[in-house]
């Protein structure tokens, strides 16, 4: 019978698996503590967040007195205008930051790949934004942008280019682009380092051969260099995208998501819902949605990495 | 003539002696309470320095000085906008506590106003809270209503409820039970730069009488001198915003609920009333129409207005009496010509009562902080060392330390602090203190509701930001805020 066959089949597959585990029991014993720690610090919080996302947690009640609302939190999120505003901000923030940081990083890597006097110094200078504390950088940029006595405003007014300092972070239309600039400034060195590492792997003889064959600089880049950097580019873009989806420090410190929610992205909004407004249930529902998005990106990241490994293995 | 028998005389004598003895030992009558009905700068001056207190001896009756224990304690500490003088008093307090109670192992942690609530809430969720906490006045009812706090009244640490402002006691009372003791209470005042007023063609020695005058003066200062007139603050999640906007809202006759009335019920939401909208309109007029306030108001805190004021780039603002000392501290750090400019500003600093609304109503936030003891189940380790907690609470809320810890920026929570020699010294050394003590009777406490922190720190600033950025009209912003409060009170998601 079909059912019996199915069970037998499953049992049939299980037995060799168990045998394999038994044969490698020492290996599993070695990784068991790590798995246990991961279950406690990763699996349980994920489970609890999912559970909490089905409860209402009014600010007047303790968390243990939460009220079950089923998918009520998800419905209220998806029907809330703030959700769409924050999602749009998050997409603009992530796409713009990722794309521009990658392009700038790539361009810098190409420039620094050539040998010239002062290359080491320039490389060290360009890495500074990445190594500087994000909190410190946010405060510095907040003062640079300050709408009344920021440096940029003072210079523009001093040079007669503006009547009054430009409004960078106190306007709903300019705040997000202004924060994206700060984020790109902080992130492009990471892309630069990744792409510089990738450039080291481009075979020099191929470039020389292309040159001998009459390929110009652009053709050498497009047909030789770039194909070799495809995998490292994918990984870099995915890492940047995940980091940007998860960004918190810059928008939170510089504007707290304001003015008027104009710079709220998912993470800052989740933080405010949870810790400022104690809507743990709604914040958890938001977190579950964000988790699904990041897991999707993570899947592509792992696929890109395993693709690299397969290629390396076959080479 | 009344005839008294020997037996009756003995009985009466015994009763009166017992009564006298009990009165003398009763903490409530250790000092005659301050008469709030006589409150005026003159009355405050008349009682200052009239009584001595022995803090260690008083607290020894609550917790013996040789008591051995351990205490974890979080408190809202000094921040960048506070004067150095206050920093020193905080340092002195903990040093004195350790000397007074050498066997109590104290683990204290200072947090800023804007961080404390978030961190404390998180710690409570993980049952990792400290044994005692000093919170902003807004926090008392939130945590009491949720059952995190132990009942605690002034009598538990040797004082009397009458020794504290009734409004302050309201903020630590939930469902008829008292859950904390006020450490300090404050009302702010209106500060202006007389030189800027003069140069702008205004009377340098007269504060704007009404909020409509503030709007006019702000525009006049901006138009004539090209600098910001009024120091508007509209940052979200910052305590400075409600402390500056609510006086304006109440003066116009508005409110979140009916908190500005003598017996508030908090039933009717008033944020969308014409009076509340008029108050919001005044802010809109200054920020959008006249552009007469700092553009950075939406991301600024009061600490950002202080250097603007000192640089002579801001005409007027609402603040503590401590701002005078802050200006002195900042002036000391200035160099070259900046030092002279700062001195000119300090010489021209004037303090006055906060302006009234169109109907002559004057209001100010009755602010301050409270100190509480946590229930053991929410504390790290599951135990609360109550005698140790009471020792620090007794000391902080004593007439001496509640005065010293509020020396420059606030007023003592324990009204007997006004009778100490340090109050007398303070009246002589802290300029403009009279003005802020005069504002105390106009003080209105924030609604004593668990939802108050969200209303004051998020919904009200959001309303301001929505109107000032043009994301909504004034009417829409007020209606939106009223709806948010309604949803919040209804337990909405």
TrEMBL record, chain A:
One of its GO terms (cellular component) is plasma membrane. SUPFAM superfamilies: MalF N-terminal region-like, MetI-like. The keyword Ligase does not apply. Keywords: Cell membrane, Membrane, Transmembrane, Transmembrane helix, Transport. It is a multi-pass membrane protein. The chain crosses the membrane at residues 28-47, 91-110, 116-136, 168-185, 235-254, 283-302. Belongs to the binding-protein-dependent transport system permease family. This is Sugar ABC transporter permease. It comes from Mesorhizobium waimense.
From TrEMBL, chain B:
Residues 1-31 form the signal peptide. GO terms for cellular component: ATP-binding cassette (ABC) transporter complex, substrate-binding subunit-containing. One of its GO terms (biological process) is maltodextrin transmembrane transport. The keyword Transport applies. Transmembrane segments: none annotated. Keywords: Periplasm, Signal, Transport. Gene3D superfamilies: Periplasmic binding protein-like II (3.40.190.10). Pfam families: SBP_bac_1. SUPFAM superfamilies: Periplasmic binding protein-like II (SSF53850). One of its GO terms (molecular function) is maltose binding. InterPro entries: SBP. Belongs to the bacterial solute-binding protein 1 family. This is Sugar ABC transporter substrate-binding protein.
């Amino acid at each position: 019978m079909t059912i019996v066959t199915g069970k037998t089949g499953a049992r049939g597959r299980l037995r060799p698996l168990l045998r394999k585990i038994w044969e490698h029991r020492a290996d599993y014993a070695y990784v068991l503590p790590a798995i246990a720690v991961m279950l406690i610090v990763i699996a349980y919080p994920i489970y609890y967040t999912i559970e909490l996302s089905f409860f209402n947690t009014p600010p007047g009640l303790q968390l243990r007195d939460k009220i079950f609302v089923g998918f009520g939190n998800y419905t209220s999120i998806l029907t809330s205008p703030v959700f769409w505003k924050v999602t749009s901000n998050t997409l603009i923030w992530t796409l713009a930051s990722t794309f521009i940081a990658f392009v700038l990083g790539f361009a810098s890597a190409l420039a620094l790949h050539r040998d010239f006097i002062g290359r080491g110094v320039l490389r060290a200078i360009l890495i500074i934004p990445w190594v500087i504390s994000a909190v410190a950088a946010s405060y510095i940029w907040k003062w640079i942008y300050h709408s009344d006595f920021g440096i940029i405003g003072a210079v523009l007014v001093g040079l007669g280019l503006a009547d009054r300092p430009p409004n960078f972070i106190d306007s709903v239309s300019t705040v997000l682009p202004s924060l994206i600039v700060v984020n790109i400034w902080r992130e492009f060195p990471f892309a630069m380092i990744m792409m510089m590492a990738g450039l080291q792997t481009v075979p020099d003889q191929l470039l020389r051969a292309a040159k001998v064959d009459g390929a110009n600089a652009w053709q050498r880049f497009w047909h030789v260099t770039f194909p070799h950097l495809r995998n490292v580019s994918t990984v870099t873009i995915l890492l940047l995208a995940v980091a940007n989806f998860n960004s918190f420090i810059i928008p939170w410190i510089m504007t707290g998501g304001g003015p008027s929610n104009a710079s709220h992205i998912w993470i800052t909004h989740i933080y405010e819902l949870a810790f400022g407004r104690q809507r743990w249930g709604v914040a958890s529902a938001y977190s579950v949605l964000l988790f699904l998005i990041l897991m999707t990106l993570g899947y592509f990241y792992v696929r890109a990495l395993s693709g690299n490994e397969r290629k390396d293995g076959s080479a | 003539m009344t005839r008294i028998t020997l037996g009756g005389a003995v009985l009466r004598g015994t009763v009166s002696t017992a009564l006298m003895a009990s009165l003398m030992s009763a903490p409530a009558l250790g000092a005659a309470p301050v008469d709030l009905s006589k409150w005026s700068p003159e009355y405050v001056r008349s009682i200052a320095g009239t009584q001595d207190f022995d803090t260690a001896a008083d607290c020894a009756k609550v917790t013996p000085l040789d008591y051995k224990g351990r205490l974890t304690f979080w408190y809202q500490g000094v921040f960048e906008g506070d004067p150095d003088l206050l920093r020193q008093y905080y340092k002195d307090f903990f040093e004195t506590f350790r000397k007074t109670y050498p066997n109590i192992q104290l683990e204290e942690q200072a947090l800023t106003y804007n961080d404390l609530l978030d961190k404390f809430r998180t710690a409570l969720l993980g049952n990792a809270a400290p044994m005692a906490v000093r919170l902003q006045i807004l926090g008392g009812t939130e945590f009491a209503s949720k059952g995190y706090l132990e009942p605690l009244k002034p009598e538990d640490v040797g004082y009397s409820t009458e020794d504290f402002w009734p409004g302050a006691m309201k903020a630590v009372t939930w469902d008829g039970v008292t859950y904390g003791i006020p450490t300090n209470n404050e009302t702010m005042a209106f500060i202006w730069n007389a030189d800027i007023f003069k140069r702008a063609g205004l009377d340098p020695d007269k504060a704007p009488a009404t909020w409509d005058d503030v709007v006019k003066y702000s525009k006049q200062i901006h138009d004539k001198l090209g600098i910001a007139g009024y120091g508007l603050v509209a940052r979200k999640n910052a305590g400075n915003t409600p402390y500056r906007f609510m006086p304006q809202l109440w003066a116009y006759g508005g409110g979140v609920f009916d908190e500005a009335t003598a017996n508030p019920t908090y039933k009717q939401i008033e944020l969308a009333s014409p009076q509340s909208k008029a108050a919001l309109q005044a802010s809109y007029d200054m920020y959008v129409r006249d552009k007469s306030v700092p553009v950075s108001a939406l991301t600024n805190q009061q600490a950002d207005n202080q250097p603007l004021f000192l640089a002579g780039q801001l005409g007027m603002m609402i603040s503590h009496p401590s701002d005078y000392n802050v200006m002195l501290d900042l002036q000391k750090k200035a160099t070259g010509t900046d030092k002279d400019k700062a001195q000119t500003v300090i010489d021209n600093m004037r303090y006055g009562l906060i302006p009234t609304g169109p109907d002559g109503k004057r209001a100010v936030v009755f602010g301050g902080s409270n100190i509480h003891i946590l229930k053991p189940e929410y504390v790290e380790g599951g135990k609360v060392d109550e005698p140790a907690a009471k020792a620090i609470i007794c000391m902080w809320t004593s007439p001496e330390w509640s005065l010293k810890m509020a020396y420059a920026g606030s007023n003592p929570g324990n009204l007997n602090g006004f009778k100490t020699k340090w109050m007398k010294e303070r009246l002589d050394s802290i300029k403009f203190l009279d003005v802020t003590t005069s504002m105390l009777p106009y003080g209105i406490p924030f609604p004593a509701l668990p939802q108050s922190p969200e209303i004051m720190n998020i919904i009200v600033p959001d309303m301001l930001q929505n109107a000032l950025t043009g994301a909504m009209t004034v009417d829409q912003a007020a209606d939106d805020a009223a709806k948010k409060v309604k949803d919040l009170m209804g337990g909405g998601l």
